[in-house]
Amino acid sequence: MNKQNKYLDPTGPLGLIIIFLVLALAPLFVGPFYVRLLAVGILYGVAAVGFNILFGYTGLLSFGHAMFWGMGAYGVAIGLEKFGLGFIGSFTLAICILLGLSVVTGFLSLRHTKIYFAMLTLAFGQLVYAIILKWRDLTGGDEGIYGIPRPLETVTNYYYLIIAISIVILLLIWRLLNSPLGVAFQTIRDNPYRAEVLGYPVKRVRMLSYVVSGLVTGVAGMLYSPLQGAITPESLYWTFSAAIVFMAVLGGPRIFIGPFIGGIVYVLLMNYAMDITEYWMMAMGIMLALLIYLLPQGIVGGIFDYIKKARGETK
Amino acid sequence: MMSIDYIIVQIINALFYASILFLISSGLSLIYGIMRILNLAHGAFYMLGAYIGYTVVMLYLSGADCAFIFSPIIAIIMLQAIGVGIERGLIKPLYKKPEELQLLVTFALVLIFDDLVKIAWGAEYKSFTKIAGGSLKIGNYTIPIYFIGIILTGFIVAIFLWWFFSKTLIGRQMKASAYNAEVAAALGVNTDKIFIVSFAIGSALAGLAGAIAAPILTAYPGMGTEAIVLSFAVIVIGGMGSIAGALTGAIIAGFARTIMAATYPILEVALIYIVMVIVLLVKPSGLFGREEVERR
Amino acid sequence: MKPVLIGKGLKKYFGNVRAVDGVFIQINPGEVVGLIGPNGAGKTTLLNLLSGVLKPDSGEVLVYVGGKKEYINVAGWNPAKITGLGVARAFQIPNIFENMTVIDNLRAAIIASKKLYGKTLRFYDRINDVEREAEKLLKLFGLIEKAESIAGGLGHGERKILDIALALTVKPKILMLDEPTAGLSAAEKPLIIDLIRKLKNEINAAILVVEHDLDVVFTVSERVVVMHEGKILAEGTPEEIKSDIRVREAYFGEVL
After folding, report:
1. Which of A191, A194, A200 lies nearest to residue C117, judging by beta carbons?
2. In terms of Cα–Cα distance, which of A237, A260, A239 is closest to A173?
3. Hey, CA dihedral for B210, B234, B168, B102, is it positive or negative?
4. pTM across the whole model
5. Over chain A (315 residues), what is each successive 10-residue block's mean pLDDT?
6. Global ipTM
7. Residues 211..230 of C with a Cβ closer than 8 Å to A: which?
């Protein structure tokens, strides 16, 4: 049996450590613009990993994950700007909102699976968007909230805080997904009927997966609004939910670090596209389409397949 | 405030909105019902229809009245071609692959088209300087006769679709295929052809909606993303795969929005999604479910 | 010794079709029983009634639980609850976890049977009890070579074996096999026969085998039950059944 140290798994902690080492050294080589860009990429990556707990591991495609990201961001923003809470207070407020949101929407959405589940998550996502959009007094309406302060003042300092928090979160999630509960997720993904017959409490496990998934994406969002100093309802719109799906699939949903890499690559691609053309959305769309045809298992998935082929291994 | 003429105008507003939504949603429902594909780019087809409409009416025919007849026709023709081209070229290769890839490819198209129209037409909103037909005076209010034209168009298309699916051979084959693709294929239905026709009709409907809505709603990049998510709400409420469902859902959406805009603007956008959630929780197959597709 | 499982007066009609029409069947501890019959005789339906996949229109499914009560009627129960009482079932179309490795499949099943899925602080593959059992099962089923292979990539015969292995993780009192040799090549069938023999020796469970392949059934079974048109036609040792005229009529009458 394969008893090597699990922490040395390149698709897990080892890979994460390496990537984060590179990321941590980045400010020495690039200017503040790119540091902020990478910070966004890291947060997108964490959000995508959160999403993938539900999608890649438990087999449920949510089309409303932007609501967790957005409400995390708005929760912090509202706490700081409207209620005058400090950072700790605002983060706590945001977590409470996220917990309530994930439990309620999870309970209702998980009454179904597959397409109806996806539609329910889409509906909830748009509902949250609609509420935030119209609640001008609290949320600033379509202009959003701006002037949000940043912990530790500078982008670079905050970047390191983001790295620290992200590593901890990702390692915790990795441990969770490699625990018996993680196995429960996967059995329910692969064969919910057999899983139930074997004794897994399918509904409860799905609910747990949904809530954890929402919280992780939400925490990433929480760190986002102080980074950018502002938040708008765009972050709650369905197109961002689609972008999160994109990041997870782009990176490789079958592998733990896949979506994280997907998030970073997404931001880098977007930046590259913006550099070469004002029509960067089209460039992104073309790159996405190419990836779907050429690398359907995602970047990390593709790399692993290539390594396996090079080693001459079959399935 | 609640005078008869005000009510009539609001009803016309609601029906106008509902007609456009119906055209878009029936196309989306059709494609989903037969091919089980959620085409996120459907909104982009709507947008293309709007831009084509703008081009024909404003750029080529300088707002002549007859242009308003030509533009929907041209939009239908062009969107059919574009739709089929996309289905054959981009979606067909993904039939056997996981569904999320199909979904993402249509999302990629949304991104591409949103910029494509900027390249071809510029990023500004394209408004029409005139609209065919005069105005109609209703009490203290006037509305363009064009609104009535749109409502009539929706009505005619609804009847056409009803006729198509119950009286024509290919229409009935499509219904059979929606109900059970494998059995239909076993009975000799050419599913490939069915897919092409579905996508053609679906895209044409979206293009038609865009072309006739553009004079009122203007053509602008990104108009598809709002349209598509509203259409999702409509077909979920009405029943995915059902034309009657698309009609009913669109009417509900139209009235919900109009009523809310006049009474509780805060809920104007939210209400339709609340209804969507309720329907999904109570009867997920929607008001007309899948059985209705067969009965029609 | 008391029978492990008793089906009493079981009936299941599908409209006009009397799939199971008043069946009494009894399985004793540790015995291997073959259930045969021509197509449409109702074998799989009976199996489904006994394992909770279908709810009988009437009749009882009694599972021995010891103690004062002795038997509990599980007719119409949810399959997961029936499994909890020691009635396990393997499927004709292998029902495995396609994207996980073979050993992870086993670990998953063992974790479920021991109710360890809430343990978020341990690694799923570093729990001694689970590992020991997984190894035992791998050895018993000859799957050691394929332990780290993805289940989805296994050959049909191996998938069936894995399916049966998963059923065994609940340490059942009775294991039901639904057409284990269906779809297998001539080379693979002896594997199943061997497996059933091994199982009989190694585990303490009774085995009920629904089968089409008469050779296989007559080789492994101690007792054979024949169904025809929803009813029990005959019961006895393989020799008795082989020479029973009514059985021949039932089968060959079908062919003609």
Report:
1. A200
2. A260
3. positive
4. 0.89
5. 69 88 90 92 97 95 96 94 88 95 95 88 94 88 88 89 95 94 94 89 94 97 94 94 93 92 93 88 90 86 81 60
6. 0.86
7. none
